[in-house]
Structure formats: C-alpha cells, structure tokens
Specification:
The complex is a heterodimer of chains A (103) and B (364). Chain A is an all-alpha fold and 103 residues long. Chain A contains three helices and no strands. Chain B is mainly alpha-helical and 364 residues long. The chains are: A mainly alpha (103), B mainly alpha (364).
C-alpha cells in the first residue's frame, strides 16, 4: 500500500524548476526572465522543505529555505534595479536589445 | 502498479546494492511509492507530449487556435501524469491530506505554466502570486507553517509588489512612448518581445529533458529504500506528539518558557525544563535558528542590508545642482552614473532640477 511520500513533493519541485527554466530561456522580457528565476527558486524551496520534513522533521530544511528567501529577495531587488537602469538606457525591456553584450 | 520493490525496510547500503541488482523480486513490502508506478516509457512519452504542447503554447506569431491546441495537449499530459500518480496512492490511508496535496500541486504547476506562457507580464506576475499561494499550502502540508507565512509575506507581498510596480512603470511609459508607432488607441498593446518568444523549440526540448530526467531519477532510479524509509518513518508520526528520539535542537539547555523565573537565578541547568516543541512549528524553527545558525542568520540580515543599499545605488539618478553665480543659469552636473538625464517618463523625477518632466519643488 503506497502513500503520499517524498517523491511527490520532489516531483512538484522538479516540475516547477523545469518550467521556470523554459521560461528563463524563452521569454524576452527582462522582468519576466527574473520572474522565472523566482519560479525556479520556488521549486528548490519545495525540495528543501520536503526533505526537511521527511528526514525526521529536521528543521534544517526550513532554515535553509529562509536563506533561500533572503537570497531571492536580494536578487530581486538588485535585478529590478538593474532592469530599471537598463530600461532607462534603451527605453525597452527587450533582452535582445542588449545583444551586443554577447561580445 | 506491477512489481513493488522490497527496498523499503532495508538499511541504506543493502538497499543500494539491491537497487543495483535491479529487478525487485522480493516480497512486496513497501510503504512509499516504489519503482513501477511510473515506467520510464511513460515518463518519456509524457515529457515529449508536454514538450510539444509547451512549444505550441509559448507566445509566438501563430494564431490563437494553435496556442489553444498546445494548451490542451499540455493539460492532457499533466492530467495523465497526475492521474497515474493519484491511482498509485489512491488506496492508502491519508487522513484527507492527500486531496489537498493534489489540489495545491495542480494549482502550482498550472499557474507556473501560465507564468511562462502568458504574453502579458502583469498577468504573469499575478499568476506567480497564485502559484506562490498554492506553494504555501504545500508548505503547510509539510508542517512548515512559518515558511508558508514567510513565503506569502515575502514573495506574494514584497517581491511581487516590486515586480508589478516595475512592470507597470515600464509598460505604461512604453505605450506612451511609441503610441504613434503601434496601433494607437489600443490600450495595452502587447509589445513585440512579449508576443514572440525566443527559441521555443530548443527551450522546450531542454526543459522537458531536464524534467524527464528529474522525474526518472525521483521515481525510478532513486534507491527506493532511502526515500521510502523516510516516508515511512515520519509519515506514521502523529503531529500532536513530539518525536520520541529527541532531535538535536531540543537537547541542550533551552529557552525558558514565558512566565518562568529569570535565567540568571542560580538554578542548575539540569533542573531547567527542556521544551520539546512540535516538529515543524515556528518555535522549533526559531530555536534551531538561534541556537545553531546564529551567525548565518546575522549574515543573511547583512546580505539584505547590502542588497538594499546596492539597489538604491544602482537605480537612483544622481543629479547635482550647483548653486548658480549671481544672475547665471542653474547648471547641472551630471555624472555618468545612472545615465543621462532624459525626458523619459520612466526616469525618477528629481526635485530641484530643470528636468522638464520633474515635479515642481514642494514649496512648504
């Protein structure tokens, strides 16, 4: 008899991560690109909390998720600052407008 | 479900050996999801189908009907995947928790797909809020109430407000800027870079390859004994009573409960009661954080402060106003940081300059 287990939560986290990755590659709007990174962060957070829960209720999973939220918040603030800066230069949010950065 | 593996009861190393040996032909003792629930062929087929659906669904120059077909394909693949998993766990005694898991996961994944595939950034952000809320529901199911609240407050509250703010600032000024170029009068015409995605085929292939590999590893290749052992261990635990084997974070001399005598009175540490918090509760998490992770916690606060200062430094526009000579015009010194002072409405208005779009200086 099977029951709801760690695998299910890991699967949800993995699916979120993959979807976020697809969005990160395909979208051309700078803001949506960073939104997709937040989606990937969220999948990782589900993984961490699920591991913490299923491994003898270790609070380390939740503690690490707190650090992940901290990094995500810092990343979001810095990234949005950069997006505002880039938007002022070219008046567009298109990531392809900065194609010359490829070198 | 076919064959169920017998790795569940085994310790770590023997289960690894058994897993390497391959076909679980032992007695059917399994507490968790074991191999055989999702065959690799099924995972492969579902990922290919979902990849095709995502490719069709991603914003592109196609007409809406094709995108709808892609959405239907993707939805069908997701439903088949979910139904296969649900059927595997249907008979188990769940205490009603299983239904919430499926509902929350379905909302999360659906909203994530919509975040990626919606052409309007504001809608993407709002779907992301919904996805975050459903994830918070999953966290509650995982006994992580504090993380659920923190996720809602930080993600859905703070970060997403910033995102939506920037999106609206940008799109508004953009539609004001090239209103003549685009079809005038149409409120909120979607920009070209939102309508046409970049490399949808490659991205779908890559993303669903990664998803397929992840699912394959999770459901098939993971040593079933490891994952199932943990599932059986804590899945059987009842929430109300603490874990009998006292974990490390409740062991040492502990926080005095409120209303107790002050700590400095000369009670020996052995007398002091050792509180055992409910696992996963905010008390347990806080005790763990402030006992064993104190430096990390302070460092994360420092990181947040630095990030805030950095964001302000990056995004501000430095415009220095020089006091004019008598009768002379007001002159601006414009350092290169932050670009030129232009008439873009997206630029932050600076008081006290002769930027034509600047607000009037408050005369109070």
């Amino acid at each position: 008899m099977t029951q709801l287990a760690l695998q299910h939560y890991l699967a949800v986290g993995g699916i979120l991560f993959a979807i976020g990755l697809i969005g990160f590659i395909t979208r051309r709007n700078l803001i949506v690109i960073f939104l997709c990174t937040e989606l990937m962060f969220q999948g990782v957070a589900i993984n961490l909390v699920a591991f913490g829960r299923f491994m003898n209720n270790d609070p380390g999973g939740q503690a690490f998720t707190i650090y992940l939220l901290v990094i995500a918040a810092a990343e979001a603030s810095l990234a949005l600052g950069l997006v505002v800066l880039l938007f002022r230069q070219k008046n567009t949010l298109d990531a392809d407008a900065w194609r010359e950065l490829k070198g | 479900m076919g064959e169920v593996s017998a790795f569940a009861a085994g310790p770590f190393a023997p289960s690894l050996v058994l897993g390497a040996a391959g076909n679980g032909a032992g007695p059917a003792v399994s507490t968790g999801v074991s191999s055989g629930v999702l065959s690799p062929v099924l995972i492969l087929v579902l990922c290919v189908v979902a990849g095709v659906g995502t490719y069709l669904l991603l914003p592109s120059r196609r007409e809406g009907a094709v995108r709808k077909i892609g959405g239907v394909i993707l939805l069908a693949a997701g439903l088949i995947f979910g139904a296969t998993l649900i059927r595997a766990v249907a008979g188990a005694v769940q205490g009603g928790m299983s239904v919430f898991f499926w509902v929350f996961s379905a909302i999360t994944v659906f909203c994530a797909v919509r975040v990626v595939t919606h052409a309007r950034p504001v809608y993407s952000a709002l779907y992301f809020v919904l996805s975050v809320l459903a994830t918070a529901g999953l966290f509650v199911l995982l006994w992580a109430e504090f993380m659920a609240a923190a996720l809602v407050i930080i993600y859905a509250g703070a970060i997403l407000v910033t995102y939506v703010f920037v999106i609206m600032l940008a799109t508004q000024s953009q539609s004001a800027g090239d209103a003549a170029a685009s079809s005038a009068g149409e409120v909120g015409a979607i920009a070209e870079y939102d309508r046409v995605s970049r490399e949808p085929l490659v991205a779908s292939a890559l993303g669903f390859t990664i998803m397929g590999v992840l699912l394959f590893v999770i459901f098939e290749k993971a040593p079933g004994g490891v994952l199932d052992k943990y599932a059986g261990a804590s899945g059987a635990a009842v929430r109300a009573e603490p874990v009998p084997s006292a974990p490390a974070w409740t062991g040492s001399p502990a926080v005095a409960p409120p209303g107790d005598a002050p700590v400095m009175t000369a009670a020996p540490p052995a007398v002091r009661p050792v509180p055992t918090y409910t696992p996963g509760s905010p008390q347990a998490l806080g005790t763990y954080l402030f006992k064993t992770q104190l430096v990390n916690l302070e460092l994360s606060g420092l990181i947040l402060t630095i990030a805030m200062v950095g964001a302000i430094l990056i995004a501000r526009r430095r415009v220095a106003v020089v006091k004019p000579a008598v009768g002379g015009p007001v002159r601006e010194l414009k350092p290169d940081l932050g670009g030129r002072v232009d008439s873009s409405p997206a630029s932050v208005p600076v008081y006290g300059t002769d930027n034509p779009r600047a607000k009037a200086y408050p005369e109070t």
